[in-house]
Every structure is written in structure tokens, then in C-alpha cells.
Amino acid sequence: MPIPFLTSLVFDGAPPWMPKPWTLIKYTSSIGALALTKWYASGATNTADKTLHGRVILMTGGTSGIGTVTTYELAKRGAQIVLLTHQSPSDPFLVEFVEDMRERTENQFIYAEQVDLSSLHSIRLFATRWIDNQPPRRLDAIILCAATMTPPGSARTETLEGIESAWMVNYLANFHLLSILSPAIKAQPFDRDVRIIIPTCSSYISAPPLDKMLEKKDWSPKRAYARSKLALMVFAQAFQKHLDAYKRPDQLPMNARVLLVDPGFTRTPGTMRWLSRGTIWGLFVYILLYPIWWLFLKSANMGAQSILFAVMDSSLGPGRGAGGKLIKECITVDCARKDVHDEKIAKTLWEASDKLIETTEKEQAIKRAKARSEQENKEKEAKVADQKEEIEALVSAIAKGKAKKAQKEKASRDGKKAKSSGKA
Predict the structure, then answer these.
(1) Which residues contact 319 (CB under 8 A, 6 or more apart)?
(2) Could you give the angle at the alpha carbon of 165 between the alpha carbons of 160 and 166, nearest 5°?
(3) How much is the pLDDT for 61?
(4) Does the pLDDT of residue 423 top 60, yes or no?
(5) Coil, helix or strand at residue 57
(6) For the chain, how many helices (H) and strands (E)?
(7) How confident is the model at residue 180 (pLDDT cuts 50, 70, 90)?
(8) Edge-to-edge strands of the sheet including 256-262?
(9) pLDDT tens digit string along 360-396?
(10) In this predicted model, what pLDDT tens digit does every residue of 208-250 receive, in sequence order?
(11) 254 CB contacts (<8 Å, ≥6 apart)?
(12) DSSP letter, residue 171
């Protein structure tokens, strides 16, 4: 079939239905350019792989976007996943999510624990329960995928504890969680490959410096998000040094590695909320322009590739160089800002974070104690009111009983009198 067609093409020329050579080249080049752009924008694919049976992994943000893909891929390889979620484990969505994930991965070791990353108290409750276990619970990895974005044009928001939302969820929650879990990380056996994976974003490059507070008048969603990511990267480097400085009882080197991961620009719910500005009209525009987002932004699956590489690649484990590396497109790259490695900035940030947490937790403890006291007083008052009501009801019942008895006695006397009068 091809030979007669080619022969006809040579001797008789192109058939009428066949496009002209220039048109054919133009369209073929356009399609090739689009395919090449899509291939390049999709990023690198993780080539590292290993069995994770028996490994215990704590994970935030594991029920949405990149986190969902990461949860699935790690569970499929046999890892025991503990999802730290804002919802209660009995929440219908979460119950269905866990059951579906267990069924798809054929892995029953997927659980959920409620941890509100906008609450220092909630984080402390979970983390202290984890480290209070004796002997220390197994811990192979911590993956901190959770993050929040305030849509452009939106007003500054604070948590119930009075901390700016992006700073709290994106940075301070991770600082607080890892600080408390630090003893559990240090207590892992020397032959265990422990990894703390911290996803970040290239927005840190344009972040305001950390040595100055971000005043409310200078606040914007973009600055707040970028600054929180820069703080997280500075803390990651400092936390690795904190772990390395620990002297193990067995005198062996530290076996925990902190790894930063930049997944790249990805089509996730957070990105959609950012691009749509959190509005219905913005969502409509986002849908109209979806072909552009599809072309230039990674899918959640491709965004998770560098995280999976950081978890499983053997060259990033203990004995293979220092921690604190930045992974992008499944390779190690340098940070774009020198202040990420600045020890003075890291020390100031660590001390300021500790002070903020201490101050906030004291204030919240006083508020909880006051609220508990008020609740107890209300319960006491309600109990006294109930007792008073019972006594009044009893007194009323006795009074009614006496009145009824008196009425019966009077009726009896009247009857006797009437009977006596009748006999007379």
C-alpha cells in the first residue's frame, strides 16, 4: 500500500486532498512545538524506586493535590502512612478517602490523625502523644506537603491564636511540629534511613528579607507566601545542623537528613485558587484558559516526582553527603539566595519563632483555663438551678398534695354533715 502511494506521488504528483508542502510543514512544526513545550513543562520523572514495607511515614497535606499522589505512590510500595489532617478521622470525606486509598494500593496501613496546623495547641497535643511512647515509635520519614495561599486581592487573615495565616501554616506549624518531634527523630536506630522532606516553592527568591518584620501596611498575599517559604528553607538548613550537632549514645553519625524539594508549578487546588483569585468569576476565567494551564503547568502526578525521588533515592541517604539539599526536577540544585544558609539569620529566626510560640501558648493556656473555669461555673450554676427547680417542684408537689388532702377532708366532712342533717 505505501509503495503504490509513493509511486503515484512521484509520477502523478500530490492528490487534491493532500495539503501543500508548506502548509504541512507549518502545521507539523506547530504540533511539534506544542508537544515539545508540554514535554519540557512536565518536568523530570523519578527513576528511583525501592520497597517501603514496614516504613512509617508522617505526612501533612496528603489528601489533596501533590500530597494525594505522594500518599498513593508510597502506600503502593508498602509504607505505613499516618496522615495528619485538619478533619477528624470520623469525617465522612476522610473515611472515604482512606478506604479508597487502602483499596487502590492494597495497603491497609493508612491511618489519619487530627492535627490542625493553624493551632499550636493542636500540634503540641499530637506531637507530645507521639514522643511519649516507650520505646520510641518507629519513624522513617516526615513529609510536610501542607501549605496555604491567600488569593491575590484578599485581605490579611489571622488564625484563632492571632498569627498571620500563611506564616502559621506554611512555616511556624512545621517549625513547631519538628521541634517537638526532634527527640523521636534522634532516637531512631543508627541503621535507619530517616528523611524529613520539606516541599518549597521558587517564590522564596522574591521574598522580603527575614531580618525585618512584615508590617501590616506592607503585607500582600504574594509577599506573605514567599516570606513563609523562605523562612521554611532557612529553618530546614538550621534543623539539619541541629540534628548533626546531636551526640548519639552509640557515638555514630546522625542518620537523619533534611531535604528541600521544589515540585515546580503544578495544577493543584492551591494553584487554581491563586490563579482564580478565589472568586467565581476568576474560576470561570481559569476554566476558559485551562488549555494554557494544561500546557505550561505540571500535573499533580509530575509535581510529586521530585518528592518521591527525595524519599527513595539512595544517594540522598545517610553517609552520602550532608543534608539540607534542594531537589528540583529529580536532581540536586543550588539555592538561589545566599541568606538561606546564613547562620545569623537562622539563629534570629529560630529564637523569634520560639519566643512567639511560647508567648502565644501561654496566652492561649490562660484563655483555655479561663474558658474552662467559666464553663465549670456555668455547669455549677446550671446544677444549682436544676436543684433549685427540683426543690421548688417538690415543694409545689407537697403543697398540692396537702391542698388536695385538705380538699378531700373538707369534702368528707361536708358529706358527713349533709348525712347528719338528712337523718335529723
Answers:
(1) 253
(2) 165
(3) 92
(4) no
(5) strand
(6) 14, 8
(7) very high
(8) 110-114, 80-85, 56-60, 141-144, 194-199, 256-262, 325-328, 331-333
(9) 999 989 988 888 888 888 888 888 888 888 888 888 8
(10) 888 877 778 888 889 999 999 999 999 999 999 999 999 988 8
(11) 186, 243, 244, 246, 248, 318
(12) I
Q: Are 117 and 59 in contact (CB under 8 A)?
A: no
Q: Are 141 and 194 in contact (CB under 8 A)?
A: yes
Q: Which amino acid is at 205?
A: I
Catalytic residue among 229, 298, 325, 328: 229
**Omega prior to 135 cis, within 30 of 0:** yes
Q: How far is CA 282 from CA 32, 203, 265, 300, in A?
A: 31, 22, 19, 21
Residue with cell 516553592: 201
d(CA 147, CA 357): 19
Summarised one tens digit per residue, pLDDT across range 93-121 is: 999 999 999 999 999 999 999 999 999 99
At residue 383, what is the residue type?
K
| Contact between residue 235 and residue 346 where contact means Cβ atoms under 8 Å apart | yes
The reply to whether 423 belongs to the active site is no
Give 215's contacts (C-beta < 8 A, 6+ positions apart): none
